[in-house]
Amino acid sequence: MSMSSKKKLSISIPLSNEILDFSSNLMIELDKKFSINFIKNKSARKHINLFSGEILNSNLLMLNNYLSQNVLIKKKFQVKILGFGAFIGPFSTIFLRFNKSENFDLIRKILFDSSKYWLKISNTTPDDVWLPKSTVIYKDMDNTKFSEVIKYLNTLTIPSYMYIEEIMRIEITDKDEIEIL
User: Fold this and answer.
1) Which residue, of 38, 111, 160, 167, has the fewest CB within 10 Å?
2) Quick check: pTM over 0.85?
3) Beta bridge partners of 94
4) What is the pLDDT of residues 5-20, one digit of tens each?
5) CA quadruple 86, 139, 153, 98: dihedral positive or negative?
6) Is the pLDDT of residue 1 over 50?
């Protein structure tokens, strides 16, 4: 099977309104102050990944049809923003955390029902490891900067809520994340 016959795909909720502005401004400041820009340099809007994995190109149209029919946000809903979180490692990850609401569970159940279209599901997708988050720092902050970055983040006022209005699909390549229709 050639690499071009499959894609890495993420079904996500884009950040919106105040938290999108906050996140975009934060990316600029992290780049200026700490030269942290891996996430900033991605093409796709900042987002909460709901479901991701690999899919055969031949299944993409069927998946898109399934999603169009079943994952509609008919009425926007509000989700509480809980603050920052982190996964500690040699290059720590910092993210914005969101409340895990019933709406997320309902959408994710529909996405899991689409698993027949997927070749492989990402290891961050199953319920026992998934949490609603939007990554702020990934791959480019060694831990010598961790304390300084945390001190800076603690000075910020994060919006309290975000409205969820749409679902987006993102193709993930080795170099970028690109929104697709």
Assistant:
1) 160
2) yes
3) 86, 137
4) 899 999 999 999 999 9
5) negative
6) no
Note whether 70 and 110 are within 8 A (CB).
yes
Q: Which long-range contacts (CB under 8 A, 24 or more apart) does 95-101 make?
A: 95/133, 95/134, 95/135, 95/136, 95/137, 96/19, 96/23, 96/133, 96/134, 96/136, 96/158, 97/131, 97/132, 97/133, 98/48, 98/132, 98/133, 98/134, 98/162, 99/132, 100/131, 100/132, 101/77, 101/132
Task: Output the CA–CA distances (angstroms, integers) from residue 8 to 43, 95, 102, 165, 179, in the order listed.
Answer: 15, 22, 27, 24, 12
- pLDDT tens per residue, range 151-167: 999 999 999 999 998 88
Q: What is the crossing angle of helices 146-153 and 17-34, to 10°?
A: 140
Over 90: is that where the pLDDT of 44 sits? no
Question: What is the Cα Rg of the chain in Å?
Answer: 17
- Token couple for 69: 């029919």
